[in-house]
Every structure is written in C-alpha cells, then in structure tokens.
Specification:
Length: about 120
C-alpha cells in the first residue's frame, strides 16, 4: 500500500519535491494560482502522486519561528488534500501578509487553492 495515497497521517517523502531540478522544472513551466496570502505554482507531475515544494523566504517571514509555522501549516493542509490532487508538482510561495494572519484564515486560503488545483479533475 502506497503511504502517499493511503490517507496516512505522515507526510511521505514521495509527496515532497526534494531536488533542485524538480523545483526548476516547476518554476520554468507552471500554471500560477494565488490569493493575497500565497502563490501556488503547478507544474507537470514527475511522480504518481502530487508533490509539494515550499518557498518561504526571509523577506516574507523574517523570523524563523514564523517561517516554520507557515511551512507546517502548508504541509498539513497539503497532506489533507493529497488524495484529491492530480499527479502534479506544486510549489507554494508565501507572501509577506501571511505571517500576520491567524491559522484559520490561512487554512481557508490554502483549502481554496487546493480546490482550484483539483477542481477540473474531480468534475470529469
């Protein structure tokens, strides 16, 4: 059983972008989705499942505690939506306003972005 699709409580390595060439491929040829908190780049999948990469800059969140909170939140929401996402590579970039927002606001924002990515695939 594949842990990436089994609804596991873990965030499996198979669901992560780990190589710089994978990140470059997404940045080079991606569909862009976003709102006031996040920009999400969606590229061709290089695996059987959706994979997540994070780009949380010091400019967006100067304190490491803020960067860590944002990364944990993004990973958690991605994990919840992993089974519904198509096999794409996703890079999430954080905008500076996100560090000042409460978690429930960011969760709603991320959930809408995941739905936007998975929407066309679920309706077919």
């Amino acid at each position: 059983m594949d842990p990436a699709t089994a609804g596991s409580e873990r965030f499996p390595r198979a669901a992560r972008l780990t190589r710089s060439r994978d990140f470059r491929a997404v940045f080079a040829d991606a569909r862009r989705h976003g709102d006031r908190h996040f920009t999400v780049l969606v590229g061709q999948g290089g695996a059987d499942t959706a994979r997540l990469g994070l780009a949380v800059s010091k400019r967006a969140a100067p304190r490491s505690v803020d960067r860590s909170r944002l990364k944990r939140l993004i990973r958690e929401r991605f994990r919840h939506h992993l089974a519904r996402l198509p096999a794409v590579d996703v890079v999430v970039m954080v905008r500076p306003v996100a560090r000042q927002c409460d978690n429930p606001v960011l969760i709603r924002s991320l959930d809408k972005l995941w739905q936007r990515i998975s929407g066309p695939c679920e309706s077919s």
